[in-house]
Fold this sequence. Notes:
Layout: E1 4-9, H1 18-26, E2 35-39, H2 42-50, E3 55-59
Antiparallel strand pairs: 1-2, 1-3
Amino acid sequence: MAKVFKVTLKRSLIGCTQDQKDTVRCLGLRKRHQTVEVKDNPAQRGQILKVQHLIDVVVAR
């Protein structure tokens, strides 16, 4: 079974670059304190690293 990350948006996107806003949206996050499950693959890991200061990540499985 593939690993899954639980990603939660902890900080506001106000003042972030448009590139960071787009990355958060591609992860499936729209509002603060929203949590989504993201499959573990290299592309998703790169997106998580790009906005790691805005989100909280927990390994679900």
